[in-house]
């Protein structure tokens, strides 16, 4: 009796050759165990797709006997050991994907003999050594992904001879500069070299060399010099991710040409000048109607925050401009960016009050305004920010009571109102917020008692009521705060014993 396997799900047989299996497509099937070396008997196989299962052990070297094989996908498993060098016997191979396994040792030089290869994926393994220069022979190669390993050395100049339009070399230990030969890859769309030890400056012709560029990611390297001068020529660019480098100079005023721009992250660099109008580039971003993320955290940028920030894309959900030298007032109308979930304007020199129409920001999760010169009170309309998780208004000149409406923010975990001129009693409803992990109220003029309800905050790690005018603290209730690590109480009028 002949076993009828051709009707099985994920098994594909030849129409021309009876009962000859030409494809195995068994991704995400919950398969467990090792891959049998007897797979070599399926000599008509052209496609093996076993990704996202739980295979372990070595990749069988017998796969090298499948001379008709064109596609081999073994990603998202737990294969270990070396990459079999005799895979190079599969001379028809077009796509090789071994991403997210436990493979080790070097990338075989022999892979450079797979002349028909168009996609090579080896990311997220434990590979060491250098990127083989032999890959220069793969003139049809369009996708190269070897990120998330322990590769070292320089990026081979020879890669400029390929047809790569997607390159992922991030999260390795690569050094030296970006080879100028990569500028020959005129079809480049995704350029990801983040988290290495690369240095030098970017080619000022990059935007011209890569006219189809969609994403550039160079996070956490050692690049210096101007970063964005020519990128505006890459009109299809959607993501500029360059934080944690040493880029200098101004942000070009013509970024608005990038009408497909969705995210720009230049945090932790050294951008800025002495001119005092470093934020004028925001004016051109009005044209970027798809912009969702804008981060310029920790620079030397100076001047007022352009009022046109209020006219930016309503798709914006994250703005981080903290630790710059911005002065004057928070631009009115910024509350019109109703999809904001993260707004960081930390350590600036704003002298206005807190956003008067803050209630419009009903999706806000993190609001950081610490270290400014904000005056006035905390608006009672803050109760509309029901998704608020982190609120930091510390080190300003705020006055008045803490509004009891703050208790309408049931998810708030980090609340810092320290070092202001707030007074009155601490609202009972706020103390009852069981979501609180950190509550910092020190350096104000609060009066009254530290209420019994503070003992209900079982998730509380830090409670700071230092330097207030509180009295008659019911400290024995704090024994219920089992996670408590920090409890500054000085500068008030507490009495009684501290519980052990």
Describe the structure.
- The chain has helices spanning 206-209, 428-431, and strands spanning 11-13, 21-25, 32-34, 47-49, 54-58, 71-73, 78-81, 95-97, 102-106, 119-121, 126-128, 143-145, 152-153, 166-168, 173-174, 190-192, 199-200, 215-217, 222-225, 239-241, 246-249, 263-265, 270-271, 293-295, 302-304, 318-320, 325-328, 342-344, 349-350, 366-368, 390-392, 399-400, 414-416, 421-424, 438-440, 445-449, 462-464, 469-471.
- The protein has a 20-stranded mixed beta sheet, with no helix packed on it. A 5-stranded parallel beta sheet has the order 3-5-7-9-11, with no helix packed on it.
- The chain contains 2 helices and 38 strands.
- The termini are far apart.
- The model has no long low-confidence stretch (mean pLDDT 91).
- Helices cover 2% and strands 24% of the residues.
- The protein is mostly beta strands and 500 residues long.
- The radius of gyration is 29 Å and the shape is globular.
- A hairpin with a 7-residue loop joins strand 1 (11-13) and strand 2.
Radius of gyration: 29 Å
Q: Sketch the major β-sheet.
A: 20 strands, mixed
Mean residue pLDDT:
91
Q: What would you call the structural class?
A: mainly beta
Classify the beta-strand content into a percent band.
Answer: 15-25%
The end-to-end distance, rounded to whole angstroms, is 79 Å
Subunit organisation of the chains: single chain
Q: Number of DSSP helices?
A: 2
Could you say which overall geometry the principal axes of the C-alpha atoms support? Answer: globular
| Parts with pLDDT < 50 across at least 5 consecutive residues | none
Number of strands: 38
- Proportion of helical residues: under 10%
